[in-house]
Amino acid sequence: MSIYNQRTDYSLNDPLEPNKLPDNPFELFDGWYKIALTNINKDPNAMMLSTYGNGMPRGRVVLLKSLDERGFTYFSNYESKKVQETDAHKKASLTFFWSDLERQVRVEGSVEKVASNESDDYFLSRPRGSRLGAWASPQSKELKNREELINRLTAIEKEFEGKEVHRPENWGGLRLVPTYFEFWQGQSSRLHDRIIFEKTDNGWIKKRLAP
User: Fold this and answer.
1) Residue 96 belongs to a domain with what CATH number?
2) Which one of 53, 57, 118, 179 counts the least CB within 10 Å of its CB?
């Protein structure tokens, strides 16, 4: 099988014109995201979180759980590698890729922890099994085998038997506060649209980049 002949000629969308787009990138993202919600069957909120640690860039897929004018919120064990890396460098990027829509959005910015009450509210909205799992998993730590993890979960289930499963202190929300958006849309003959928004002291500015 040759991977070099796997090509798609993108043709779903009309070309993007910056002067016809909203001046606020959150408004444009909201519009694109609503289209993804109705057209992507599984995990339209999946996003690649990219960080930097130990001299290497790292990426992993996480789920967007909240979005407002403050930024993009996701949740994690605070002792995980991804949180250690954003604690150290304070910056990260997110990438959404909706292949069925021939669209991609990249967001860059600083990362901050959300308020504890916001983390509490989300944690209590999760299924009980997911809450127990958050207590059981020493995220990013080495395990001898899967049995060790199952044994930890069994112990946690006994500990919380008949009790509400509250949020661990080392688990909560992170918010990426954007300073940069790039909206990518596929076009025929690889003449793709790339529209960026950069934050300045006077608000957002729009530019078109070559594909």
Assistant:
1) 2.30.110.10
2) 57
